[in-house]
Design a protein that fits this description.
3 domains, 15 helices, Dna Ligase, domain 1, D-amino Acid Aminotransferase, Chain A, domain 1, 8-stranded antiparallel sheet, 5-stranded parallel sheet, about 25% strand, about 35% helix, about 450 residues, globular
């Protein structure tokens, strides 16, 4: 097992990784920007190294600075967390070339799954269903209009090299296609440095279903069930639950079996997530995230498996000590993402936390780096807390979530807590009757009212 791990991230995920390390008896090194000098994970880590000013490119994306910090502190391994460099295959290779262990998938798997077109081709080879679309990127010389007509409108123009909803535009008819292509290409270039785009059939009322995978790279692969991540605004998830209220036992077993076979053939190592759109009983692969997910706690709670601990064990050369038949699914879990944003306009709200009281009691977990007096910098993602609740049934889970949201106090800034309080009382949500477009309609209707 490792003696010391560098955590190449910030915020709640850095604190989550630190806690897993401490429970394994492993020392931690926190890297941080000048804006994060007082962050909770920095305060708790055994050692900390400032790697640059607030701008991510000068700190959390500064590969030479991170590798230098790893060298001077003498760590054994580097955990990239979520975001920033977590899915950067070049960084993973550099980590290994400098003699450190990379706590994550093989660089080759990160690289192929990071390119959505290459990923789509790969999973077709592995036997997973995909959304009908172009065979590859579409360029100025391609008859894109004919392809779109053959797929049937509406169609989705998507960036080949990115995610998070960036570089995605919908063409509802032929008259929208040129503008959708132009906007998607320019946005993809700005965010990912790659203006390649491709076309997919736009599904009308799909659910966003993802399957949590864990592999040891030595033939052992399991899944921890599915998560329903359909409540999204501008392709950004706000709430996730497991299991999905939309799937039956047969569908759950079928997609799980196909995913396991695919990942076993791939020889996948570490945690990863296969993401699907689900509509009318059919699954369509859309992408794979070769890293830990923000919403991983809901899968941990319904299975009792600590994903971060397993990531570390696997990276240290360990095998999975159990098979799929040993994974037991019990109860229901929901996670709400609490952002430092106005609950109606979604304008970011950085600032000093004047009051802080986290909810507690049975079945309540809070993953957050906040504390009274902490100042949220304006430079980074607005996620400041994850509230995760568990119940024996979905109804018990929902009642517990309502109670926890009533208890949660974050003063001094605006947060999305009021939005979640309204959301979980909406009849459609209570009935589990929602899709990936539902939240946009809910928010628009709430504003109109």
């Amino acid at each position: 097992m490792f003696e010391k791990i560098l955590i190449a991230n910030r915020g709640e995920i850095a604190l989550r990784i630190h806690r897993a390390c401490r429970e394994l008896g492993i020392q931690t090194v926190a890297v941080h920007s000048t804006a994060d000098a007082d962050a909770m994970h920095v305060r708790l880590a055994d050692e900390s190294v400032c790697i640059g000013p607030p701008a991510p490119r000068q700190s959390y994306l500064n590969i030479p600075a991170i590798l230098s910090a790893a060298t001077i502190t003498g760590v054994d391994a580097i955990h990239p967390g979520v975001g920033f460099l977590a899915e950067n295959a070049d960084f993973a290779e550099m980590v290994q070339e400098h003699g450190f262990t990379w706590i994550g998938p093989e660089p080759e798997h990160i690289r192929v799954m990071g390119d959505k077109i290459a990923a789509k081709r790969k999973v077709i080879e592995l036997g997973l269903p995909t959304v009908p679309g172009s065979d590859g990127p579409v360029g100025p010389d391609d008859d894109v209009a004919a392809l779109a007509a053959s797929l049937g409108y509406p169609v989705l123009v998507k960036a080949a090299g990115g995610g998070g909803g960036k570089g995605m535009k919908v063409a509802h008819g032929p008259e929208d296609l040129d503008q959708a292509l132009s906007l998607a290409r320019s946005e993809a270039k700005a965010f990912f440095g790659n203006d390649m785009v491709y076309l997919e059939k736009f599904l009308g009322k799909p659910r966003h279903i993802e399957l949590q995978i864990l592999g040891d790279g030595q033939g052992g692969v399991i899944h921890l069930g599915e998560r329903d991540c359909s409540l999204q605004r501008r392709h950004q998830k706000l709430l996730e639950e497991a299991p999905s209220p939309a799937l039956n036992a047969e569908e759950r077993a079928a997609i799980g079996a196909r995913a396991l076979e695919a990942m076993r053939t791939l020889g996948y190592r570490s945690a990863g997530t296969l993401e699907f759109l689900y509509e009318d009983g059919h699954f369509y692969f859309i992408e794979m995230n070769t890293r830990l997910q923000v919403e991983h706690p809901v899968s941990e709670w319904i299975t009792g498996i600590d994903l971060v601990r397993e990531q570390i064990r696997i990276a240290a050369g360990g095998r999975l000590g159990f098979g799929q038949e040993d994974v037991r699914f019990q109860g229901h879990a929901i996670e709400v993402r609490i952002n430092a944003e106005h609950p109606e306009t979604f304008v970011p709200s950085p600032g000093r936390i004047s009051d802080y009281h986290a909810p507690g009691g049975p079945g309540v977990r809070v993953d957050s780096h906040l504390y009274q007096g902490y100042r949220i910098p304006p430079t980074y993602d607005s996620l400041v807390s994850k509230l995760i609740v568990y119940g024996a049934t979905r109804n018990e889970c929902l009642m517990r979530l309502r109670r926890a949201l009533e208890e949660y106090v974050i003063g001094g800034i605006e947060t999305t807590i009021p939005l979640h309080r309204k959301l979980i009382q909406a009849p459609d949500f209570l009935n589990g009757d929602y899709d990936i477009h539902w939240l946009e309609r809910f928010v628009a209707g709430d504003r109109a009212a």
